[in-house]
Amino acid sequence: MFRAHYENYSSNDILSNIFTVTVIDPCDKPVSVTSKTLTDQEYTITQAEQTYQVPVYDADPVWCAITYSYQIVDVAGDAALAFDSDAAARQFAFSQTTDLTLSGATSKVYTIAVKGEAGNVVTTSDTATFSLTIKNPCIDPSYVTIEKAVLLNQIYELHEFDPIGFEFTHDPFVIKTLPFDHSLCGSLTYTSTFMTVDIDETIAVFADPMSDPVRYD
Amino acid sequence: MYSEDFALLGLRPYTVKAFLTEYAVTTTDDATATIEFLDPCPDPESVVSVLQTNPVDYYYTA
């Protein structure tokens, strides 16, 4: 309330009715939140952890706090990411070292939506999306290669080693993986040629001593 | 390996390559070497005579 009186006759006064002044936090019901454009990401399984920081969304009023959260369309992709939702961090970390089903034979694309929300009482929000492509390392020479063995020259005298044949072996080829050793990509299949013709591993070299002289197991 | 084919005499190439069984695009180029086929006749292991039965007489006069 307030009191009014004559300046020179202060006893002649009057009191107003009681009224209320309410101070409202504008962040109780912000005007808006506006998202930013997000950048698509790629991650290859077994790769060292990769991070992506979501840009700061705009709030109106600007001082209203924004909370960040995400949703992924195919939840299986969750196994390859973590999200630090702290407003100062807003950071995704992509990491996966064992599960190739997340990439399939080549790669899989996961759509991730990031929502920014503000409002102490009535909330408002905006959402932006980006794609995360999870790639299979087994088809990328940056991550997996095969080191071939050195073959040795051989000498064979016709008719020798009847009836068991002349046998020799070569060292195994080696699968090299980066950035660490693993066996996720499975085993090797070998093929061989003799005089530029593929060798059939079912050849019986004694069936006809004038043809198909070499078999490869 | 076994052969009686004299047409093979000399150096003949052979190769081996490998690929990931489940990811055939990941492969090696060819590892190469040769097999030298030799003629066994210049250095035979043995000569076996055949037993002769009642051979016809042969006379030689110097």
Q: Quick one: overall form of chain B?
A: rod-shaped
Q: Could you give the count of β-strands of chain A?
A: 16
What percentage of the residues of chain A does DSSP assign to strands (E)?
35-45%
Number of E-state strands of chain B: 3
How many whole angstroms does the radius of gyration of chain A measure? 36 Å
Coarse structural class of chain B: mainly beta
* Order of H and E elements of chain A: EEEEEEEEEEEEEEEE
- Report the mean per-residue pLDDT of chain B as an integer: 91
Level of helix content of chain B?
A: under 10%
Tell me the structural class of chain A: mainly beta
Quickly name the level 1 CATH class of the largest domain in chain A: Mainly Beta
Task: Give the termini separation of chain B.
Answer: 52 Å
Most extensive interface, chain pair and sizes: A-B, 52 and 37 residues
Proper CATH architecture of the largest domain in chain A: Sandwich
Index terms:
heterodimer; A: 217 residues; mainly beta; Immunoglobulin-like; 2 domains; three-stranded antiparallel β-sheet; B: three-stranded antiparallel β-sheet
Description:
The complex is a heterodimer of chains A (217) and B (62). By secondary structure, chain A is mainly beta. Helix content of chain A is 0%, strand content 36%. By secondary structure, chain B is mostly beta strands. Chain B has a three-stranded antiparallel sheet with strand order 2-1-3, with no helix packed on it. The radius of gyration of chain B is 25 Å and the shape is rod-shaped.
Brief write-up:
Chain A has 217 residues and is an all-beta fold. Helices cover 0% and strands 36% of the residues of chain A. Chain A has strands spanning 3-5, 13-15, 32-34, 41-44, 50-53, 58-60, 67-72, 81-84, 91-94, 107-118, 124-135, 144-147, 154-157, 174-177, 188-194, 197-198.
What order do the helices and strands come in, and which of them pair?
The complex is a heterodimer of chains A (217) and B (62).
Chain A: E1 3-5, E2 13-15, E3 32-34, E4 41-44, E5 50-53, E6 58-60, E7 67-72, E8 81-84, E9 91-94, E10 107-118, E11 124-135, E12 144-147, E13 154-157, E14 174-177, E15 188-194, E16 197-198
Parallel strand pairs in A: 4-11
Antiparallel strand pairs in A: 1-2, 3-6, 5-9, 7-10, 8-9, 10-11, 12-14, 15-16
Chain B: E1 10-20, E2 23-27, E3 31-38
Antiparallel strand pairs in B: 1-2, 1-3
